[in-house]
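Notebook entry, structure prediction.
Reason for the run: the old model in the group folder had no record of what sequence produced it. Starting over properly, with the input documented here first.
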Amino acid sequence: MKQNNVFFRYFSPVAAQQKLYVAALVALLSSSAYKAEAQVGEPFIHDPSTIALCDGKYYTFGTGEGGIWSEDGWTWQGGAVRPGRGAAPDVLKIGDRYLVAYSATGGGLGGGHRGDVLTMWNKSLDPKSPDFKYSEPIVVASSLDDEDCDAIDAGLLLDPTTGKLWLSYGTYFGFIRLVELDPKTGKRMEGNEPVNIAIDCEATDLIYRNGWYYLLGTHGTCCDGPNSTYNIVVGRSRKITGPYVDNVGREMLQGGGKMVIAANNLKTGPGHFGRYIEEEGVEKMSFHYESDFRQGGRSVLAIRPLLWKNDWPVAGEEFHAGTYEIESERRGYALEIAVDFVRMQRDIEPFWIKPTKPLKDIEPQTLKEVEAEWPKGEVKVRMNDYMFRPHQKWSITPAGKGGYLGGPYYKICIEGTTRYLTATAQHDVIAKPEFTGEDTQLWRIEQLTDGTYRIMPKAVPGTEEKLALVSLGDCTPGLAPFDFNSDNSKWNFRQQ
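New structure, fully documented this time:
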């Protein structure tokens, strides 16, 4: 049974036994590495809107009044302002203004299904800006107690092909509905009647890509902490009005939906999808987890890479600290420091002779066996065949020096050493013999829409241009503008 009343949907306290259970898990499973790789600061929010960028800062709004914001997209704090309270807002930039849609009651809040969806405008989302002033809210959709739809959980889409503005809304109580709004006023288009497009979900969001309209909905139960079964599903259509169909031909009006993300990594209840496009090939999805076991069971903001496989959206992977081969998509060669290749002793019988003695494992080459012969200072970096040798194994850990949208800056060094990957003014990469914490040693690692990765230094000396790690040749790495359409700009990580 879906939790759709005022007590369970948004304000249910966790039972004493649940609290003890979560506390035990937090104590048992928390680690500094995990906390460094989760959104930091105060990322606590429920039903977050799609993340919006305003004057270099990121904003998202949630149920209740207000929201959270971030200077870098990694460290979050309270202070975003949204009047009207209500539930489950969405925000969309149209021209030089921001349109905010939110719900007043509905969804069983207050004991019934009567509710309204309202819209309002603001030229800035920064409360300190002189342009910060919300317009009076306008009702654009409503529901009655006996209606088969809840006016709650707004989702906005400005159709890039037509310029039309659309609003989806609704919950498990009945249908998900679609209405057209005026992109100049935020009002409902005169005479527009709602269209039913889905059932058995809520907190919908619409996106457009490659000739397809996608309806992302949140399926399952919410607002029960670690017991919440929320998950995000999707269907698609060639028409904005549907029918929206999943990967096996089920219509979302019949309860269909392809899974995008479910509970994972001790975090339950992903819901309230939003899409953020950084640039071609670099997309993020924002949502909340109903309960993060390792953050006190709180509802938290989450940001994951958004991948596309066969024209279906897929949640990308969280990058975790570890030891990796860093492999170029161009040729498949591995990043390594430029030191002499040390041959391993070959004490085996020729392959054409049947073994005459028991076979013994060959132990991999160790750092101790080779490091003494390496140069003491800076070392160039190159690419070569991967042979799981010490000069090819990179230890990647959060640097503890801020981050970017969805991730912390990382430091990258040869495992077991203090030889850190560093960007140079010559647009090269080298391994420096120490970590100084300078911007040239801080790296953002972002999964791209095709599943490969972009590796980018925070800064390159002598230029303001954003440069990424690229394959200048099969064996020559360097720094150059990122190009999603070239395999030169793409990398893979193989955990060792």
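Summary: The chain has two domains: 6-315, 322-495.
The old model has been moved to the deprecated folder.
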